[in-house]
Amino acid sequence: MAKLTKTxxxxxxxFKNLLSNxxxxxxxxxxxxxxxxxxxxxxxxxxxxxxxxxLNMRCFFRGWSDNRxxxxxxxxxxxxxxxxxxxxxxIEFWQWYDIKEKKYLDYEVVHRLIKExxxxxxxxxxxxxxxxxxxxxxxxxxxxxxxxELDVPVNEVIDKLSLNMHVPIIYDERGRCYYSPQKDxxxxxxxxxxxxxxxxxxxxxxxxxxxxxxPSRLNRDIVNAFGTASYAKEELRAEIASAILSSYLxxxxxEKHMQNHSAYVYSWMQAIDKDPNELFRAINDAESISxxxxxxxxxxxLKFEIAEVKETTNTFKPKKKAM
Length: 323
What we know:
- By secondary structure, the chain is α+β, with helices and mostly antiparallel strands.
- It has 10 helices and 12 strands.
- It has a 5-stranded mixed β-sheet.
């Protein structure tokens, strides 16, 4: 089992802490509207991979409706001020280092150089921890302005996913909701049998996420027996993917919804306890799932206004090879 980097240890701890229902530091919000991907308020770049999940969850559980983040130095340079007693969120930053040329390069450049004849051993991937603050924790930051705000009814998005992915949703009387890999179809209780609209939508998004594993789509191993480790891992992937997709949609959550969501994900944490790296594998797969579903739902990323601040390139000295 590969050892976690210090950064990932912090992220794993933060992830588990956010999912803990007895976390007294959580500040529940009555309603919360998805605002899309978390992104850097200075560069305008969206966070990806593990960082996207961690920051989305931080917004999700603390009721932050602003999805912009900045480092302390970025805020200081922009003339903004971090509010007293604000707690930063750790994220990971990975960068390729050219040993011969002694400089950092983007992945695309490294990939091109290797294709042109450079050896893979000439490059090393190094990770570092950065700490960011949400815009809600920053004084003086401009008000968030969203262009082309997505306000499509969630049921229409689900219908479009079902149509474009060619996965029928069959409503019947049996009271069960599941995806059948053999028949490539979703079975669901009737709409009126759900407690509320959120339960209906979140459940169907979850099952649609499972359906992406079909050989005709993303081709994952999804024929797993209930209670097995493989089943738990697929459940974690589907739940994270549906949570990402929900961040784009006008879905409202009550405290009860939040607690149920937290309890559901936490029930699969045993897979992560056995192998902490499983969380990061699940996140990578969930990101592929959500990207696929966003494309099939014909949802485009929302446009935001970013600060007019020039940022110098962040650099760091490699200390050890990333795991």
